[in-house]
Amino acid sequence: MSGLFMFANHLVVVFPGTELDPMVMAEWRTRTIQPAFYMTACYFILRHFLGKNPTTTLWPVFLILLFFTLTQALLFIDRPYKFGIPGIGMFLVSIFVTLFVRLSHSKRKKEIRMDTF
Question: I need a surface site. Which of 13, 71, 80, 104 has the fewest CB within 10 A?
Fold first, then answer.
């Protein structure tokens, strides 16, 4: 759903159950989701021109989550941190999901061996 809001900035949605201002949420989206999208796109364009393919179908999902987690981590450089407990909670959830997808990718990569074909 956040990908939709990246292209439709006039739709302002906040974290459910929080008291965050819609403008703060628009800033959060601008500083996390959009850079993660562009970093992912740049990575895959570079890989395309280098002629390399992802090893599993989980690799693109992992990269999207990794770049999203990295952009959230950069938000902690700001003083004071504007996004409160919901922002920290989202950061922790994204770390957990990123690690889970990475472990799943590693497991899946071991199952797919090129020498078995």
Answer: 80
